[in-house]
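Encode chain A's predicted structure.
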Amino acid sequence: MGLLEERVAIITGSTRGIGKAIAHEFVREGAKVVITSSSQANIDNAVAEFPKGSVYGCVCNVISLSDMEHLLHAAVERFGRVDCFINNAGISDPFGSITDSDPEVWGRVIDTNLKGTCNGTRVALNYFLQENRKGKIINMAGSGTDRRSNTPWISAYGSTKAAIARFTWSVAEEYRHTGVAVMLLHPGLVRTGMVSADNPTPELLRQLSTFNTILDIFAQPPSVAAKLAVKLASSWSDRKTGIYLSALDGRRKKWLLLTYPFRKILNKIDRKTC
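Encoded structure for chain A:
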């Protein structure tokens, strides 16, 4: 029996990258999963990768509170309940300085990452509290969450991740005495479309060598974060809240840094983008 047998999870932004990896891991552990995207085509392509009946796709714009309410209603209608809500959907600003940034794009990152997380948390909390369920809410950390993790050239993204961490811990404290666990997951550095250098900005071109070296040293497959997501969603976190797990904590960073020369010599660096 899997760790998430008979549980139902919603994962926003889950037709690719880290979100899709988490969905696959949840299904392997016995869960039913609702995946989302703003594109029906992306949903159709992703659903086809899963065992029949294990996944349901729903078009959703996380910036819209009504879309998120519809998403939760659709999940309950499809699978009868929801046990875990993961606010994974996120975007980043193009690599560049704040003075060169497009204010509209900068604002879109704030809306998608921070407002989307707030909307998902609000909707999930309302459901869990009304149904008297001991649900799990998992929000996604990232570069900018940790005090020493500065984010030059991606100021919008870093700002959202710092804010999401503070928001998560605030809400966890507000609802500490309920059966709802509100938690934070840092997926580490993963080669996704968000960190790809396929269409580099002028600033990224100037720093491309350093950028690629950092990826070679610290990038990990999304399965590392996916396994931590399973841990948070499982009974391991029962009666806990405000938990923060990172796929790139201090010990892991040291290990990746120490093994980098050997991985490089042995050609063991995986540069595939998920």
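The chain has nine helices and seven strands.
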